[in-house]
Design brief:
Blueprint: E1 7-18, H1 21-27, H2 29-49, E2 53-58, E3 61-66, H3 69-87, E4 98-110, E5 113-115, H4 117-128, E6 134-137, H5 138-144, E7 150-158, E8 167-174, H6 180-184, H7 186-194, H8 200-208, H9 212-227, E9 260-264, E10 268-269, H10 274-292, E11 297-299, H11 302-311, H12 315-322, E12 326-335, E13 338-347, E14 352-362, H13 366-381, H14 386-392, H15 402-409, H16 417-433, H17 438-454, H18 459-476, H19 481-493, H20 497-510, H21 515-527, H22 531-544, H23 553-562, H24 566-579, H25 584-596, H26 600-607, H27 612-621, H28 627-639
Helix pairs in contact: 1-2, 2-3, 8-9, 10-13, 15-16, 16-17, 17-18, 17-19, 18-19, 19-20, 19-21, 20-21, 21-22, 21-23, 22-23, 23-24, 24-25, 25-26, 25-28
């Protein structure tokens, strides 16, 4: 055994790799080598400007060392912008694009070379980067995110090849004006140009389907992609300037549903006290749930209601954005140990309250507070009977458990194994504190299912646990739509399609206007071989949760994929990837769609970001009822260059 002790030092490592270099070499070796040489020359120039040095090159890869994370990130941004500007001046067959990974850690020193896990992590992060982009470790993010203006998209804790512990990872996109074509990703821009966005008018008509708020943002992006560099997207200030969805006048906003329509904005707390803040969130969520379960009411989903409340603005404008006639607003305070809640039901078309009142209750009996508010709103908007009240009202989660459930909700967007496990653990704590709360069990079931889908654990065992927890939720409350929806999801992934159908039918019957229930129904329709049926359900869900439409993009792309509409599927999958770039199923279906269109380069580029073991696991687990649907996915991947 050697007794030699290696020198080590703290270092910031940048790893770069050329995208599709091997493919370009097969097409024209001279062009590929010239493009790579030009790229490495630009890299060397930017590294030197920031006081760094290139210490290793191997084929199309290069490694550089910097004295600070700031210098490395600045050099990476400048290099990618230089490459982008260079590529715009030459023909596409001569262009070279790069991925970058940056890590901060302790490196082993061997002469002028650096080795060890610090370097290996940088190389693995490069593999997580998008073409024309960069991916940094959590240690770099902690140093730079407050000093360098950029958009940092968390990928959660990622398990990297040959690295023992998960590594926090972030994709970095510059946020300065004039740089946002690179910020969005040239790969996405080119895909949009090639496919769905054939003309400006067609592009505008397409994004109008996503609702007033999202349509405004996407329209601006698409127009600028077609005509020139895309500016920094700004917060929407109202309806689109050239007509609302489906050509209706802007002044009308979204058309109102035929019946009563309402959104509950997050209640406000007079005192900035944590306990009262949790109380406002708990009562708002419980009231939304009760109204969703009330027949005859069109109720905006929880996520969009809270997002609208966060953005603020005049109630008439908020109502137009959400496409509802009525808004519920409230303010809470604690006086003499009792909770006082002042509530108004505002008709935004006239700007006056149709109902208002003050509900006084005990902090230990929030169910009474929710019930009183619900009766006031429901009686004004519809007919309230004993049967309706029994179906609509549910005991809210106890206040001691709610903070855990609230923290878990904040993690639901990320789909890496570490984050999903954290969300599951938080919901397990919530359920232990409130074991009789059926909705808590339903959410826990969904969290276990998510972790099983993206993780590396015993899949069948975790699915069985998810189904068991969902069944417990149904047992606790047979009239809770979320409980039946959770059972349907777990049963579907266990390929128990008949049980899944029965549970889903119960959920839809109990809450036909619940966005989450409709999403479950749409997903089940696709896996069961009825993709055409799912499109109407997805459309309804997006209308109910129109400030959060990206949530439904994977299902939309999946439905179009199973119908053989690959170009439309790619459009949806690309937009879904912006929301959650780490969601492996989205990337796999995107690659298969490219494969069916014989665009092998794009398919290879996407698959490079997906660990092969994750792809194989996914293909083994997908709960298709029809063999031809599973074969469609595998066939597209094979055409895209993946040998299974």
């Amino acid at each position: 055994m050697s007794s030699h002790t290696h020198d080590r030092r703290l270092a910031v490592i940048m790893a770069t790799d050329a995208v599709g270099f091997s493919r370009l070499v097969r097409v024209d070796e001279d062009i590929a080598l010239d493009a790579l040489r030009a790229g490495h020359d630009m890299l060397a120039a930017e590294v030197t400007k920031q006081g760094g040095r290139i210490f290793s090159k191997a084929g199309d890869s290069a490694f550089a060392e910097f004295v600070s994370p700031d210098a490395a990130v600045k050099a990476a941004m400048a290099f990618q912008m230089a490459v982008f500007a260079y590529n715009r001046q030459i023909s596409r067959d001569r262009q070279m694009r790069f991925r970058i990974g940056i890590n901060l850690g302790t490196a082993v020193v061997e002469g002028d070379n650096l080795l060890g896990d610090c370097v290996n992590v940088a190389a693995r992060l490069e593999g997580l980067s998008e073409p024309d982009g960069m991916c940094i470790s959590g240690t770099v993010y902690d140093q730079v995110h407050e000093r360098i203006q950029a958009k940092y998209d968390s990928l959660g804790g990622r398990r990297l090849k040959n690295i023992d512990t998960p590594v926090r990872a972030y994709r970095v996109r510059p946020s300065q004006k004039g740089r946002s074509i690179y910020a969005w990703g040239e790969e996405t821009v080119q895909a949009l140009r090639r496919r769905a966005w054939r003309t400006k008018r067609e592009a505008v008509e397409s994004v109008e389907k996503w609702g007033e708020e999202q349509g405004s943002k996407l329209r601006q992006r698409v127009e600028d992609i077609i005509e020139g560099p895309e500016p920094e997207p700004s917060e929407p200030t109202g309806a689109p300037s050239d007509g609302g969805p489906r050509g209706r006048p802007v002044s009308d906003g979204l058309s109102l549903p035929s019946g009563a329509s309402v959104a509950v904005l997050p209640f406000a707390a007079e005192e900035d006290e944590p306990g009262l803040t949790y109380c406002t969130g708990l009562i708002t969520e419980a009231l939304i749930g009760a109204l969703v379960r009330t027949p005859g009411l069109f109720v905006i989903a929880r996520n969009s209601s809270f997002e609208a409340g966060r953005r603020g603005g005049e109630l008439s404008r908020v109502g137009r954005q959400l496409g509802v006639r009525h808004l519920v607003v409230g303010q809470m305070r604690v006086t003499g140990g009792r909770l006082h809640t002042a509530v108004q039901l505002v008709d935004r078309t006239v700007g006056t309250a149709d109902w208002e009142g003050t509900v006084v209750g005990d902090l230990g009996n929030l169910q009474h507070v929710v019930a009183q508010i619900w009766r006031g709103v429901a009686e004004r908007l519809g007919t309230v009977t004993a049967d309706v009240e029994a179906a609509a009202l549910r005991p809210p989660m106890i206040l001691d458990a709610y903070p855990y459930a609230q923290r878990a909700r904040g993690l639901e967007k990320d789909t890496d194994e570490v984050t999903c496990a954290e969300a599951q653990a938080l919901l397990e704590k919530a359920v232990r504190r409130d074991p009789a709360h059926a909705e808590g069990h339903a959410r826990l079931s969904r969290a276990i299912l998510r972790k099983a889908q993206v993780g590396t654990g015993p899949f069948e065992q975790e699915l069985g646990e998810s189904l068991e927890v969902a069944a417990k939720a149904v047992e606790l409350d047979p009239l809770l739509p979320a409980a039946h929806a959770a059972e349907a999801n777990a049963a579907m992934w266990l390929r128990m399609h008949e049980r899944a159908d029965q549970a889903c039918e119960k959920a839809v019957a109990l809450a036909p206007h619940d966005a989450d229930v409709l999403e479950t129904s749409a997903s089940l329709s696709i896996w069961s071989g009825r993709p055409g049926q799912s499109l109407d359900e997805i459309k309804q869900a997006m209308r109910l949760d129109l400030l959060n439409p990206d949530k439904f993009l994977f299902d939309l792309g999946h439905a179009r994929f199973c119908m053989g509409h690959y170009e439309d599927a790619i459009s949806a999958f690309l937009r879904s990837a912006i929301r959650d770039p780490s969601f492996v199923p989205n990337q796999v279906f995107l690659a298969s769609s490219y494969g069916h269109l014989r665009e092998v380069g794009d398919a290879e580029s996407v698959l490079k970001r997906c660990p092969e073991d994750s792809v194989r696991r996914l293909l083994d687990l997908l709960p298709y009822a029809r063999l031809e649907d599973a074969d469609r996915l595998r066939d597209g991947l094979y055409k895209g260059g993946l040998v299974l």
